[in-house]
Amino acid sequence: MTNKEAVQKAKERRGQMLLGGGESRNEAQHQKGKLLARERLDLLLDENSFVEHQRYMRGRSSEMGLGSKRFDGDGVISGTGTMGGKRVFLFAQDFTILGGSLGEMHAERIVEAQRLALKNRTPFIQINDSGGARIQEGVLSLQGYAKIFRANTHASGVIPQFSLILGPCAGGAAYSPAITDFIFMVDNISSMYITGPQVIRAVTGEEISQEDLGGAGAHTAKSGNIHFRFSSEQDCMTTVKKLISYFPSNNGELPPRTVSDDPADRKTPELEEILPENQRKPYDIKDYIGHIFDQGSFIEVHADYAPNVVVGFAKLNGHTVGIFANQPKFYAAALDINSSDKAARFIRFCDCFNISIVTLVDVPGFLPGVNQEHGGIIRHGAKVLYAIAEATVPKISLIIRKAYGGAYIAMSSKALGYDRTLALPTAQIAVMGAEGAANIIFRKEIDGAGNPDEIRQQKIDEYKDSVMNPFVAAELGFVDDVIDFEDSRIELIRSLEMNLGKQEERPKKKHGNIPL
Ligand code: HXC
After folding, report:
1. Where are the chain's structural domains?
2. I need a labelling partner for 422 at 20 to 30 A (CA). Which of 102, 352, 396, 510 fits?
3. CATH number attached to the domain at 3-246
4. CA-wise closest residue to 116 among 93, 156, 88, 92
């Protein structure tokens, strides 16, 4: 073969490889409303930054007709690129080749990307679009999954890991995304389940569509398995890029600080108007978030799941922070099983990656109820206490209104580890609400009085003045300052910045045993 012929042959093979499963299968992928794997990488990465590894790797099995279905790349594209200048390692499964199913070499390529991400301490992004274990390859493919799960686990807490489910993600395959930090889905193209509608029909007799069972809607609102839902792949990629820009590349770095257009001395008088005079009336905590943090910087996580707490990332004077806030619009903001899980997992992510935590507190306590007790609210609620006590990042709290009982401890207590706790003049800090307290402590006096309602009100007012008001906690040093509404942003920035040099050690151990 002449040099020219060799070059020509290599060109042809490269062209074939870049075509994936071929034109008709690529067309079918588009017909399903899905982008091709390479189009996805183009959308995610900086222009011309993608470098592929092991691009000609092929399956070596020939069982069950696979001998005639050997494709360069083996149904996955893996490598590295930059996002806003920041290096990431990643892979995108190619559904046009054997349904993106995972065989031995497909798995090897993924594990190589995971290895390189961990070695280089960069974020890792996986784009899943696959029929799961390649059935013809049997145990080889199971072996591949085991390697991937192990690598995901070892990278956890060292580098941020994102999973974009942009097609099917069936069976045990779903456990790899579940081990990563954040899962993203897009309406009508993404699905994730351990057993599909047909198996469920056969085993339990239940009828359900693929979308209702494992689509984006089901996983955002019902199972809580995923964190972000979008109506298009483009929107999904935009949020992925924004999040990557907020985070450090690994647990040894601090989050990058950006220049904020929003002045650090901006006053926030609107906060007083937003808070209703009637304490039983709800308001939207997201209005507070919108006014306090750098404008337009808030990215909500788990928006449709356990909405009684709001968690998400934002910037405060250009610093990335994690927000953990109560939402009085739902369940009067009481903490329940699901919101405890949501908050604890979020707090632990922040702590892994040196992201300071800011809590906005208006919480009447943990939610009462037989279902909650029997569902394990003790165990689940303990996760929040554990996560906060364990976290060594700066932790700042602003008490807006109620801060009662164990929920106060979880969200504001300096004894649990908050570095600075601020209160608005409307804060009420106590074991429980004034009405409940008066009814318990003064039950005999109230029942025995000729005018019980009047006496009850007297006792309630007395309790509010003498026990709940924020100056009681401030006198004891449990609240650092009682601030004006208009100074909320300014004081939170000061509180954060005075703690950015924080260093805290924990006893050396293999790992803790958080109540799961
Ligand atoms: C081999 C597969 C495959 C698989 C799909 N294909 N899944 N090949 N192994 N797991 C092939 C199909 O045979 C087909 O090839 C091509 O990919 C496209 O698939 P279609 O079925 O035509 O596509 P679509 O109609 O869009 O349906 C997609 C699908 C369906 C919903 C994913 O293919 C499906 O249900 N696949 C099986 C899913 C599954 O049960 N996987 C195993 C899960 S258990 P041709 O050449 O005909 O076009 C598992 C265990 C892991 O993963 C355990 C780890 C712990």
Report:
1. 3-246, 270-427+479-497, 433-468
2. 352
3. 3.90.226.10
4. 88
